[in-house]
Amino acid sequence: MARIVRWSAVAVIVTAMFASLSLVMQQVERQGADDTPSRLASQVASQLSGAGGSSGDSSGATSADGLAAGDVDLAVSDAPFSIVYDAGDRPVSGTGRLDGALAQVPTGVLEQARRTGTDQVTWQLGDGRRFATVERRAGDRVVLAGQSLAPTEARIDRIGLLILAAWICVLLVVLGAFLVERLIDGASERARRAAAGGPRGA
C-alpha cells in the first residue's frame, strides 16, 4: 500500500508540473501576441499626434495612420491592422476592414482606452475569429491596432500536443519504475522465503 501511495504521489506531482507548464506556455504565447499590435498602436498614435490630429484619407496608399500597406480583410487575413476612431467612436481611417468598411469594435473597448489611456483586449467576431488588440488614446481619438490570433492559437495547440505527449511518456516511465520495483521486491521476498524454508541440518 505504501508503495502505491508513493508512486501515486509522484504521478500527481508530474501531472501538476506539466499542467503548470501548459498554463504558463499559453499565457506567454497569448501575451506575446500583443507585441505587434502594441508597437503598431504606439506608432500610429504618435504619428496622429505629430500630424495635429488630422484624420487623413483612409483610402490612399498612405493615410493619417502612417501605414503604406493595403487594406486588411479581417474575415480572412492574419496581417496586422490599425483603425482610428474619432471622438464619437466612429472609424475614420485605418486598414482593418470588414465587409468593405472600416471595422467597428464594441464601444466599451474604446471607452476603457479613453479612461486609462491604453487597453488590451481579445476581440472576437461573430464567425469566431479572434484578434489580439491594443488600444491607445491619441487626443480625442483612439487608435486600435490588432492581429489575428489564429497563428498563435495554432502554435499553442501544437505545443500543447507536445506537452501532452511528454506527460504521457513521463507517466509511462513512472509506471514502468513502479512495476520494476514491484517485481524486484517480489523476487527478493520469494528469495527470502526460499532461504528461510531451505533444508536444515539433522
Radius of gyration: 30 Å
Q: Separation of termini?
A: 40 Å
The secondary-structure class comes to: alpha+beta
Give, in order, the helices and strands: HHEEEEEHEEEH
Placed side by side, the strands forming the largest sheet appear as 3-2-8-7-6
The biggest sheet, with number of strands, parallel, antiparallel or mixed sense and barrel status, is: 5 strands, antiparallel
CATH structural fold name of the largest domain? Beta-Lactamase
Proportion of strand residues: 15-25%
Write up this protein:
The chain is of the alpha+beta class. It folds into 2 domains: 1-33 and 152-169; 34-148, Beta-Lactamase (2-Layer Sandwich). Helix content is 51%, strand content 20%. It has 4 helices and 8 strands. The chain has a 5-stranded antiparallel β-sheet, with helices on both faces. A 3-stranded mixed β-sheet has the order 1-4-5, with no helix packed on it. Strand 4 and strand 5 (101-102) form a beta hairpin. Helix 1 packs antiparallel against helix 4. The longest helix is centred in the C-terminal third of the chain and has 47 residues, at 150-196. The chain starts with a helix and ends in a 6-residue tail after the last helix. 23% of the residues are buried. Mean pLDDT is 86; it is low at 55-69.
